[in-house]
C-alpha cells in the first residue's frame, strides 16, 4: 500500500456514494415532517451511547416520582439519514441525536446535545444535580469531562478498532492509549467515592456510564473487553454493574421507539 500523499487542498471524494452519511456541509437535505405527540417532551433519538443518556434520564426522573417527565420517543435512524430531515435539523442544526423539545412551555424549548438535555431536565425537575455550589461544580466538571473525552472512545478507539475498513496500527495504538488512560482515571476516582462526582448518583454518572460503563460491560465493541484488559479496572466494573442494575437505567435502555413515518 502506497503512503498517503496529503494534497494541498482537501477534496471530498465520496460525493456520489455517501448518500446518508456525513458530508463536509451542514443543513437539511430533504423535507421531513416529524410526528408530535401529546407528552410534555418530544424526544427524537436512537439507542447509541449518546442517545441512551436522554431515555435513562427520563426514566430515572419517573422512578424518582416526577410525574411531569413523560415523553414521546421517536426513532431517528442515522444509518438511513433521518437526522438530515428538515424538521429534525430545525431542532438540531448539527444533525446529531439526541434532539428534543419541551412543549410544556410557550414558546417551546428546543434542545440538542446530550449534556444540555441532562442539565435542562435536572434543573427543571430538581433531581440528579446538587444545588450546593461545590457538589454542583464537581458534577459539571465530570459532565464536561465526558463530553470532551467521549469522542476519543467513540470516534477514536471505537472507530478504528471496530468500524474502520482497515486496521491501522498507529490509530489503534493512539486511541487505545487514551481510552485506557481515561479508564484508569475513572478507576482511581471510583476507588475513593461511590459515584463519579461524590456520594450521590447524578447526571455525571448517567453521561459517563452510557459510554464507559457500557464499554466496561462489553456492550459497545466486540472484542474490546479483552483487548483493553478491562478486568484491571475493578472499581469501574463494580460501578458499571451497580448502575446497570438501576430500574431507571434498564427502562431507559429498553425504551420503545415510535416510527417517524
TrEMBL record:
* Highest taxon listed in the record's lineage: Bacteria
Annotated GST C-terminal domain ranges read 132-261
Coiled-coil regions, chain positions:
none
Return the InterPro entries for the record: Glutathione-S-Trfase_C-like, Glutathione-S-Trfase_C_sf, Glutathione_S-Trfase, Glutathione_S-Trfase_N, Thioredoxin-like_sf
Q: Where is the GST N-terminal domain?
A: 42-129
The record's annotation in Pfam families points to: GST_C_2, GST_N
User: What name does UniProt use for this protein?
Assistant: Glutathione-dependent disulfide-bond oxidoreductase
Q: Which organism is it from?
A: Enterococcus sulfureus ATCC 49903
Taxonomic lineage from the root: Bacteria, Bacillati, Bacillota, Bacilli, Lactobacillales
Amino acid at each position: 500500500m502506497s503512503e498517503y500523499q496529503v494534497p494541498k487542498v482537501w477534496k471530498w471524494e465520496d460525493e456520489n456514494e455517501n448518500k446518508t452519511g456525513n458530508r463536509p456541509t451542514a443543513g437539511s437535505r430533504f423535507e421531513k415532517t416529524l410526528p408530535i405527540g401529546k407528552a410534555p417532551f418530544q424526544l427524537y433519538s436512537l439507542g447509541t451511547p449518546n442517545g441512551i443518556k436522554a431515555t435513562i434520564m427520563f426514566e430515572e426522573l419517573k422512578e424518582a416520582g416526577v410525574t411531569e417527565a413523560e415523553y414521546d420517543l421517536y426513532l431517528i435512524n442515522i444509518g438511513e439519514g433521518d437526522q438530515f430531515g428538515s424538521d429534525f435539523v430545525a431542532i438540531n442544526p448539527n444533525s446529531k441525536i439526541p434532539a428534543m423539545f419541551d412543549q410544556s412551555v410557550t414558546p417551546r424549548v428546543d434542545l440538542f446535545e446530550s449534556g444540555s438535555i441532562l442539565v435542562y431536565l435536572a434543573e427543571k425537575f430538581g433531581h440528579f444535580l446538587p444545588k450546593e455550589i461545590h457538589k454542583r461544580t464537581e458534577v459539571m466538571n465530570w459532565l464536561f469531562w465526558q463530553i470532551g473525552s467521549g469522542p476519543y472512545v467513540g470516534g477514536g478507539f471505537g472507530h478504528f478498532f471496530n468500524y474502520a475498513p482497515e486496521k491501522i496500527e498507529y490509530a489503534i495504538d493512539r486511541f487505545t492509549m487514551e481510552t485506557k488512560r481515561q479508564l484508569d482515571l475513572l478507576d482511581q476516582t471510583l476507588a475513593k467515592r461511590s459515584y463519579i462526582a461524590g456520594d450521590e448518583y447524578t447526571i455525571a454518572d448517567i453521561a459517563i456510564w452510557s459510554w464507559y460503563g457500557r464499554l466496561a460491560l462489553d456492550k459497545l465493541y466486540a472484542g474490546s473487553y479483552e483487548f483493553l484488559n478491562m478486568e484491571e479496572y475493578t472499581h469501574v466494573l463494580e460501578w458499571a454493574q451497580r448502575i446497570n442494575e438501576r430500574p431507571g437505567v434498564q427502562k431507559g435502555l429498553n425504551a420503545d421507539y415510535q416510527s417517524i413515518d
